[in-house]
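During the no-cost extension, the postdoctoral fellow (Dr. R.K.) reprocessed legacy sequence entries with the updated structure-token encoder. One reprocessed record is reproduced below for audit purposes.
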Amino acid sequence: VQLQASGGGRVPPGGSLTLSCTVSGSISSWQSIDWYRQAPGNQRVLIARIRSNGGTYYHSSVMHRFFISRDVAANTVYLQMNILKSEDTAAYYCAGPSLCSGSVCGSYWGQGTQVTVSS
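Re-encoded structure tokens follow.
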């Protein structure tokens, strides 16, 4: 099982960006796919989650600006980020806290993708 995060880049304030997290491997069940971000000198923070039942969670700092969605056929979870602010600048990571391949379950992280909001 592997998670591949992509889509980061540099955007001006007020701009938009969409991150992708593609899950590869034979997944038999999963609880959620999460997006975290970590700015330099700060802790990694959970900012969005989509559960296997479709339920979502957003951190207050991104609510109504960021939207998480999934494409089951493509095994991909997206994070649409709108009205980006300088404080959104961070490395963004996707994670699967409980991904199961058959009877083997584990927690998996993708590599970070950098988002820089700057004019």
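The chain is about 0% helix and 60% strand. The radius of gyration is 14 Å. The remaining legacy entries will be reprocessed before the final report is submitted.
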